[in-house]
Amino acid sequence: MNVPRFMISAASSGSGKTLITCGILQALVNRGLKVSSFKCGPDYIDPMFHSKVIGTTSRNVDAFFCEDDVLRNLFCDGAEGTDVSVIEGVMGFYDGSTVNDSSASSCDVSRKLSAPVILLIDSRGAARSVLATLKGFLEFEDNLIEGVIFNRMSESTFSKLKDQVKAMGVEPIGCVPRVDVDLSSRHLGLVLPNEIDDLRGRLNSLASTLERTIDMDLLLEVASHAGALEHTSTSYPTGITDIRVGLARDDAFCFIYEDNIEMLRRMGASIIEFSPLYDDRVPDVDLIILPGGYPELHASTLESNVRMRESIAKCISSGMPCLAECGGFMYLHDSMEDKDGKLRRMCGVIDGTSWNTGSLRRFGYVTLSNGDISVKGHEFHYWDSSSCGTDWIACRKNGQTYHCIHDDGRIVVGYPHLYYNSNPEFVRMMIARAERYRESVRSE
């Protein structure tokens, strides 16, 4: 496959990657191009913003979660049939899964996907000094940096620096002056797209500015430098039929990788979405998935929906398998502290309480194992639990291990977010549990 593509990366988080990526996506869409977008790393929220712009699913590309061939296959599957692919980097360009090397960094992903890189440099409080930053990134390690955009830089300053940038062997793609567009953040990252008034209007205004201050034609020319990728269509274990998966999806539960859902579908499962906020019962399914999200922001509504809480508890007590991650796990507790510190009654499946610690409790990649199957995941949460579970072992990149997750042979519920493509056999295990449950119900 040889789809034109480029990555937008930066020196650090907070440089404006998501805002400018969305503005560029909007400008490309406004030109009538069919655009695919990706987020480097495990983040859930940035792809939601991408999806709002391009009108279709944005996906994650993560070099820790999966092997190189799987990474390429997933990227090519998502990019197929589009005119250009835009990849948003994560953290700083060379920041990976450890501080010792750049493995699983934006740089690593760009190399594995043969994607030219546009380095975004935050120029606030600087002028010519940005050239020193650019020089450092160019020389630090082998990379595919081919262009640069200076954020929070005036057009007049950029015009004076263009020739010096060109002399460094890098295309001066453009600058972004200070703009009256903001994507506010909270403790887990950005606020959700539907929480921002007139997001479409704001992004169109930004896109208009970028059409003036960024050379979009030059950007697309750089994208055309991307080399061909060898790949095969992603394959999954087959033979699954008639399994119905109930996926909780609403404003409280919205953190799930699209590739996870696609894997379930490709393995034969039917996805039936439902809302713990607004529906009154679990649909007719064989397996419940409760993703992460922000249940603490909607705790009053979740508590008030007694029929749904009782329905979930009844399903699980009857033997229905359940896979719950982070916010979904919190929802299963006897009680959960809301954003204002008030304890709210939840489903009562987990005998314990989830509360706000006031600081980041766990953060980073983990490899999880129950002794038979391992799967990769990620943790990022401020809330903790009096009953985190002890049935799986999590191993971090630094060698630290700890127990987590409740697994009684039916449910797998805990704080870690899981990436199914790291081991499709994990999904097979959950599907097998759903099949056994379905047969037990039919035999009654």
Describe the structure.
The protein has 444 residues and is of the alpha/beta class. The protein contains 13 helices and 26 strands. The chain has helices spanning 17-30, 45-54, 68-79, 106-112, 129-140, 155-167, 199-213, 216-223, 258-266, 299-304, 306-317, 327-331, 424-443, and strands at residues 5-10, 35-40, 59-61, 84-88, 117-122, 145-151, 171-176, 185-186, 189-190, 244-248, 253-255, 270-274, 287-290, 292-293, 322-325, 333-337, 343-345, 350-356, 362-369, 374-381, 383-385, 392-396, 401-404, 406-407, 412-414, 417-418. The strands form 6 sheets. Strands 3-2-4-1-5-6-7 form a 7-stranded parallel sheet, with helices on both faces. It has a 6-stranded mixed sheet with strand order 12-10-13-15-25-24. A 5-stranded antiparallel sheet has the order 23-22-19-20-26, with no helix packed on it. β24 (406-407) and β25 (412-414) form a beta hairpin. The longest helix has 20 residues, at 424-443. The chain is globular. The mean pLDDT is 92.
Describe, in short, the structure shown:
By secondary structure, this protein is of the alpha/beta class. 32% of the residues lie in helices and 26% in strands.
Structural class assignment: alpha/beta
Q: Tell me roughly what share of residues is in helical segments.
A: 25-40%
The total strand number stands at 26
N-C termini distance: 51 Å
What characteristic shape results from the CA principal axes? globular
The rounded Rg comes to 23 Å
Strand order of the largest sheet: 3-2-4-1-5-6-7
Largest sheet: 7 strands, parallel
Nearest-integer average pLDDT? 92
Q: Please state roughly what percent of the residues sit in beta strands, choosing from under 5%, 5-15%, 15-25%, 25-35%, 35-45% or over 45%.
A: 25-35%
Number of helices: 13
> Could you list the spans in which at least 5 consecutive residues all have pLDDT below 50?
none
